[in-house]
Write a structure and sequence with these properties.
Low-confidence stretches: 468-473
Structural class: alpha/beta
Number of helices: 17
Mean pLDDT: 90
Enzyme class: transferase
Number of domains: 2
Pfam families: AA_kinase
Radius of gyration: 24 Å
CATH architecture of the largest domain: 3-Layer(aba) Sandwich
Shape: globular
EC number: 2.7.2.4
Catalytic activity: L-aspartate + ATP = 4-phospho-L-aspartate + ADP
Number of strands: 14
Family: Belongs to the aspartokinase family.
Strand content: 15-25%
Length: about 475
C-alpha cells in the first residue's frame, strides 16, 4: 500500500529540509506519490496575492495593464534565482533554466496573441480570461515539480516528472480521467512520481476550486489510487491557535480530530484541506495526516472520520479578519426570504467572494463575506440596486470560531463572554449551531488578534468553569 503526499509552497522553498525531513526521512523511498505546490509566492505573482489581493500577472492582463510583461520578466528572474539556489551542478541548472524559460516565453507569446486578437471588436478579452487564468496557474507547479524530479535524479532516485499542466499533452477528460491516464503506467514499487498540483482538465480546476486546486489533485489521486493514507506537509503544525498571534509557547498541536473540524477550518480559510478534497477522502475512508516539515519526528495531526472524543474538548481557536458583514433590512422581504436569498447568493457567486457565515430573521439578513475588497464592494453595489427601498450596510468585522470534535457550547459561551468582557471586547453577534462542533463570535475587525488571544487563554490555557446542569420543574 502507498501514500499520497502533498508538499506546501513554503516547504518547497526550503528544499533541503524537504529532502532530509520528507523524501529521505526513514521510511521506504518508493510506494509514495508526491503532489507539489509552486514555490512560495510564485502563484501570487502569476495571479494575485491570496491574502492582500495585490495584482499579479493575470490581474494586470485582466485590467489591460501594459506592465504585465514587466511583471513576467521579474517573475522569471525570481524563478531563475530559485534554480540557482537549488542546483550546484551547472548542467542540471542549465536544464532547469531552459525548462522554465521556455514555458514563460510560450506563455508571454500566447497572452500577447490573445491581446492582439482582442483589439478587434468582434473578440472580447473577458471571454478568454478564464483560460488565461488556468494557463498561468499551471506554470508554478510545473516549475517546482520539474526541479524536484531533476534534483532527485541527481541523488540516484528513480523519480518521474508527471506534468499534468496540459502543455503538449494528449491527455484529456475530467479531473479523474486525466489522473487515471497519468498514473496508468507508473510502477510505484520502482518509481517516485512527482506530480504537478495543477491539472488541465475539462471542468477547469481553477474555475471550479480556485486556489484550492492542488488539494483537489492530491485528494483525487489518493482516492483513485487507493492510498492507505494522505499526508500534507506544511511549514507549521495544525495547532490550537495561530502561534503568530497567541505565541509559539502557548499553542500545541491538535493531535487527533475528525473531518467535521477540518470542514470548519476550511470554511474559515485555514486550509487544513479544501472541503471538497476532504469530502472525497472521508467518503473513501482515507485518513488525513498534517505534518510539520521542520519537525519530521512529530506524528502531526491525524484527521479521521471515526474519531470521537470521550469528553468535551476545544481543539482550536481559529478565525478570519477583514470579513465584510453585509446587512440587508427590508420590511417587504417578510415571507420572501427564499427567493431573496437566491438572488443574493447569485450576486455573491458572480463576484467570486465566499460566504463564511449567515444570519437572518423575518425582515433582515446578514452575510459574512470573505474575499478581495474590490469584489466585496461590487457585491454591495449590486445588492443596493436589488433593494432600492431597503437599508443596506456593510462593515468590516472579524469572525472567530471555537472548534472541537465535541464541545459544550453553553460552557464555552459562559466562559468566553466573561473573558471577553474583562478585556473590553464586545461581540457584535454570537452563533451556536445545532451541530455541536463550533461556537462563533463576530467582533470588530480591530479586535481580531485580542479576541483569539483572550479565547485561547480562557478556554485552552485555563480550566474553564463548567455550567451545572439546570433542572426545569
Amino acid at each position: 500500500m502507498h501514500t499520497v503526499e502533498k508538499i506546501g509552497g513554503t516547504s518547497m522553498s526550503s528544499f533541503n529540509e524537504v529532502l532530509d525531513n520528507i523524501i529521505f526521512y526513514p521510511q521506504s523511498l518508493y510506494q509514495r506519490i508526491f503532489v507539489v505546490s509552486a514555490y512560495s509566492g510564485i502563484t501570487n505573482g502569476l495571479l494575485e496575492c491570496k491574502k492582500t489581493g495585490k495584482p499579479g500577472i493575470y490581474q494586470a492582463v485582466a485590467d489591460h495593464d501594459p506592465q504585465w510583461q514587466q511583471q513576467l520578466a521579474q517573475l522569471k528572474d525570481r524563478m531563475l534565482l530559485i534554480n540557482h539556489d537549488m542546483f550546484s551542478d551547472p548542467m542540471a541548472r542549465r536544464q532547469a533554466d531552459h525548462f522554465i524559460i521556455e514555458r514563460l516565453e510560450k506563455a508571454q507569446s500566447c497572452i500577447q496573441n490573445i491581446l492582439d486578437t482582442c483589439q478587434f471588436r468582434q473578440f472580447s478579452l473577458a471571454g478568454y480570461l478564464p483560460q488565461i487564468r488556468e494557463f498561468l496557474s499551471s506554470i508554478g507547479e510545473a516549475h517546482s515539480a520539474f526541479n524536484t524530479a531533476l534534483l532527485l535524479s541527481l541523488h540516484k532516485v528513480n523519480a518521474r516528472f508527471v506534468d499534468l499542466s496540459g502543455w503538449d499533452s494528449e491527455r484529456s477528460g475530467n479531473l479523474d480521467e486525466v489522473l487515471t491516464q497519468a498514473m496508468a503506467d507508473i510502477d510505484l514499487s520502482q518509481e517516485l512520481p512527482i506530480v504537478t498540483g495543477y491539472v488541465s482538465c475539462d471542468e477547469g480546476l481553477m474555475q471550479t476550486y480556485d486556489r484550492g486546486y492542488s488539494e483537489m489533485t492530491f485528494s483525487r489521486l489518493a482516492v483513485l489510487t487507493g492510498a492507505k493514507e494522505a499526508v500534507i506537509h506544511k511549514e507549521y503544525h495544525l495547532s490550537s491557535a495561530d502561534p503568530g498571534i497567541v505565541g509559539a509557547d502557548a499553542v500545541s498541536p491538535i493531535g487527533h480530530t475528525n473531518y467535521d473540524v477540518a470542514d470548519q477550518l476550511a470554511n474559515l480559510g485555514m486550509e487544513a484541506i479544501h472541503p471538497n478534497a476532504a469530502a472525497g477522502l472521508r467518503k473513501a475512508g482515507i485518513n488525513l495526516v498534517i505534518k510539520n516539515t521542520f519537525e519530521p519526528e512529530h506524528a502531526g495531526t491525524r484527521i479521521t472520520q471515526s474519531y470521537q472524543p470521550t469528553q468535551d474538548k476545544v481543539d482550536i481557536i481559529a478565525g478570519k479578519n477583514h470579513i465584510c458583514a453585509l446587512h440587508i433590512f427590508d420590511q417587504t422581504m417578510v415571507g420572501k426570504i427564499d427567493n431573496i436569498s437566491y438572488q443574493i447568493i447569485e450576486i455573491i457567486r458572480q463576484e467570486r467572494v465566499q460566504v463564511v457565515g449567515k444570519e437572518m430573521n423575518a425582515n433582515s439578513m446578514t452575510y459574512y463575506l470573505s474575499g478581495h475588497e474590490k469584489a466585496q464592494k461590487k457585491v454591495l453595489k449590486k445588492v443596493e440596486a436589488l433593494f432600492p427601498l431597503g437599508h443596506i450596510s456593510a462593515e468590516m468585522v472579524a469572525l472567530i470560531s471555537v472548534i472541537g470534535a465535541q464541545i459544550d457550547q453553553n460552557s464555552i459561551l459562559y466562559n468566553a463572554i466573561i473573558a471577553l468582557n474583562q478585556q473590553g471586547i464586545l461581540p457584535q453577534a454570537m452563533h451556536t449551531p445545532l451541530r455541536n462542533v463550533d461556537v462563533q463570535f463576530v467582533v470588530a475587525d480591530k479586535d481580531y488578534d485580542a479576541t483569539i488571544r483572550t479565547l485561547h487563554q480562557a478556554l485552552m490555557e485555563q480550566t474553564p468553569v463548567c455550567l451545572q446542569s439546570v433542572k426545569v420543574a
